[in-house]
Amino acid sequence: MGLNLNGVADKFIPRDVPFYELFEKQIENIIEGAETFEKFVNTNDRDEREKFLEQITGIEDRGDQKRFEISKALAKTFVTPMDREDIMDIATSLDEILNYIHTAAKEITIYNINSTEGIKKMVEKIMASIKELKEAIHLLKSKKYDEVFKHAVSAKTHENDVEDIYRKAVKEMFESKDLNENLGRYLKLREIYRHLSNTADKCDDAGTVLIDLSVKMM
Prior knowledge:
The protein is mainly alpha-helical. Helices cover 82% and strands 0% of the residues. The chain contains seven helices and no strands.
């Protein structure tokens, strides 16, 4: 008769180690940040944008604190519900998404760029990817790794959509008749597109971390 090591491990994991709950709080904070960023890009009013940027900055600060809480809990815990490296990979990859959202909002504010359809569509796809990551994170506690895998894969597919929007937007931008007259503005806009593409890459990275974990745990 084989020994179920997972079952034995569960019995010895202290019940007050809230890793799953900490992950859930982290992703909920990221959802709040992404939703605020979506509001940010859907207005061109500078006062409203300043208000939303201030909110995003506070949310990003909370995100850093939540990653620190996970690191602190990990340092104090001998037996963990998954490999220690996996715990930190999840926390770090999620935190990077929020960092990039914050930077994108700051860049748009500094460059004073009005939102284009390309920007709005890219942010919409990034939001969809984060929602899939949220579903995957919420399923970790119940150990439904096949479902975690599916949502993580779905999260990654949106990165391809963002890349398609990015290439199309840049192509249209450099084919504009007023390119020479407004070259400075277009270069700033390309920088925003590039950063949003990188934000989608961070969602893709988090999806990869969750896929790798799922395969390992199934």
